[in-house]
Specification:
Elements (H helix, E strand, L loop, with lengths): L12 H16 L3 H17 L13 E3 L4 E11 L5 E10 L6 E3 L4 E9 L9 H6 L2 E8 L4 E8 L6 E3 L6 E2 L4 E5 L3 E8 L3 E2 L6 E2 L5 E4 L2
Antiparallel strand pairs: 1-14, 2-3, 2-13, 3-11, 4-10, 5-6, 5-9, 6-7, 7-11, 8-10, 12-14
Length: 214
């Protein structure tokens, strides 16, 4: 028998326990005016770090969303940072109410990981895209295509968590990290990739098909 998995990301435990402890102390001391707001904060933190199980779609050529959120950019451009070639950029903005655990978009091997320290502007702004802390992962698919997914910190986010290492063999839909408290994930896909989503569309990590890779 397998034990039931607690649907909360492990990285959230210190925040949850600290907030719950403060709430408990306030309640024991009879400080209701403090205990109720603390309870609300604890509930919010638990919700933020929730990590539900997801069922990944079956089509072998489907590239799935690495994040929950809303599509804010679909644009063809030249990627001069990772791939040095023309790409299609798809950006997913995560607000504080979205699930923030990120998932692998497609099967493959991790070629390289590029962490860049930076600022903490709003993740859906142009400044945020250019100057914020970020972690880019270059992945080579089983059929030789190369793509990138980039975790970008946001206005409130202060920590990018990435569990991957170079040369890891990864599977679509598996968890690879998270970003604490509001952020975005950018995808850089090969030019000519058939995109399956539209601007403004809401997507779910590990579920929504973003594109088809031939």
């Amino acid at each position: 028998m397998t034990s039931a998995r607690i649907p909360v990301a492990q990285e959230g435990y210190p925040f949850i326990l600290f907030s719950a402890f403060v709430t408990l102390i306030a309640a024991i001391l009879g400080y209701d005016i403090l205990a109720w707001p603390c309870l609300a904060v604890t509930t919010f933190i638990v919700a933020f770090f929730r990590d539900p199980e997801r069922m990944t779609p079956a089509p072998a050529n489907a590239l799935i969303s690495p994040a929950d959120g809303k599509i804010i950019i679909i644009d063809e451009q030249f990627d001069d940072k990772y791939l040095q070639e023309q790409v299609i950029k798809v950006s997913i903005f995560m607000n504080v109410f979205n699930v923030h655990v990120n998932r692998i978009p497609v099967d493959g091997t991790i070629e390289s990981i590029h962490y860049t320290p930076g600022k903490f502007y709003s993740a859906d702004s142009k400044k945020g895209a250019l100057l914020n802390e970020n972690c880019g992962v270059v992945l080579k698919t089983d059929n030789g295509k190369r793509l990138v997914f980039v975790q970008v910190a946001g206005l409130i986010a202060r920590r990018i968590v990435n569990w991957l290492e170079t040369e890891d063999t990864v599977q679509r839909g598996k968890r690879f990290g998270l970003i604490r408290f509001g952020s975005r994930v950018d995808l850089y896909l090969p030019a000519g990739t058939e995109i399956s989503v539209k601007l403004g569309e809401k997507v779910s990590a590990g579920v929504t098909q973003i594109a088809s890779l031939s």
